[in-house]
Amino acid sequence: TSWNVDNDIINGPGLGGPLGILNSPALVTVDAEESQGSTIVFENVLGMWERLAPACKKRAVWLIGPGVFRELATMGNIAGSDVLPVFTPANGPLVEGYLSLFARPIIECEFCQVLGKKGDILVCDMSDVVGIDKGKMETETSLQLEFMSDRACIKTRYRFNSCPYTSAPITPFRGGDTVSPYVTLAERAGE
């Protein structure tokens, strides 16, 4: 059940159930760089960080899907003739026990998309997601349905709903690109 709840928080369609971050109208999608293939480059994560609402930066986490860790671990920022590492797990401090990027935790998440798809990397403020459950988990058992085969049937019911609190991207007071508590990278074409 917790697997379903976690998946719904990220991917929920919102049609009679939880609305996930990736389907939220408040989601900001950062465009890929020209001809970058399905990879993730420094300009992508920099652009995502810039579009994260300033008030959310102190609570933000990076959620990454399958195949993204290698991209972050080998990413560099070209400064003049030097290539500076962006992600330095061996030399950098852990944030709350996690590897970090821009001093915010990186959490590998099976509910994010695979490398190259929209939603393979997100930076988001999870405190902006509202969840509610109705009552406690209910479990029922029936021996009658499978009586002849010596099996029991167990049914579990948990009523849960969630949605992102912010309903649209935010226009900064002084103007500029919209920002949001939820930012992802656009789908990239394979090489």
Description:
By secondary structure, the protein is α+β, with helices and mostly antiparallel strands. It has 3 helices and 10 strands; from the N terminus they run αβαβαββββββββ. It has helices at residues 2-11, 42-51, 68-73; strands at 28-30, 61-64, 76-79, 82-85, 100-101, 104-108, 121-124, 129-142, 153-164, 182-185. It has a 6-stranded mixed sheet with strand order 1-10-7-2-6-5, covered by helices on one side. The two termini are 38 Å apart. 32% of the residues are buried.
What layout of secondary structure does this protein have?
Layout: H1 2-11, E1 28-30, H2 42-51, E2 61-64, H3 68-73, E3 76-79, E4 82-85, E5 100-101, E6 104-108, E7 121-124, E8 129-142, E9 153-164, E10 182-185
Parallel strand pairs: 1-10, 2-6
Antiparallel strand pairs: 2-7, 3-4, 5-6, 7-10, 8-9
Radius of gyration: 20 Å
The N- to C-terminal Cα distance equals 38 Å
Stretches where pLDDT is under 50 for at least 5 consecutive residues are: none
Give the overall average pLDDT.
86
Looking at how many chains there are and whether they match, the oligomeric state comes to single chain
Share of β-strand residues? 25-35%
Helix and strand run: HEHEHEEEEEEEE
Put simply, the count of helices is 3
The largest sheet has its strands arranged as 1-10-7-2-6-5
Q: How is the main sheet built?
A: 6 strands, mixed
